[in-house]
Amino acid sequence: MSIQPEWVVLCPWFSWGARPLSESSVIVYRGGGFRRCMVVVVIGLLWWLFRPFPAFAATITAAAASSLRPVLERVRQDYRQHVRDAEVRLVYAASGTLVQQIRHGAPYALFFSAAPEFLRPLERDGRICEGPVVIGEGYLVLYVPKGAKVPLDASLMGLKRSPPRHLAIADPAVAPFGRVARHALEKASVWQPLQGRVVYGESAAQAAQMALSGAVDAALLPRHLVQSAPFGQRGRWVAVERSLYRPTPLTMVLLCGATAAEHAFYTFVRDRLGSCATEMKAESVGACPSSGDGAGRR
Question: How much is the pTM?
Answer without folding.
Answer: 0.72
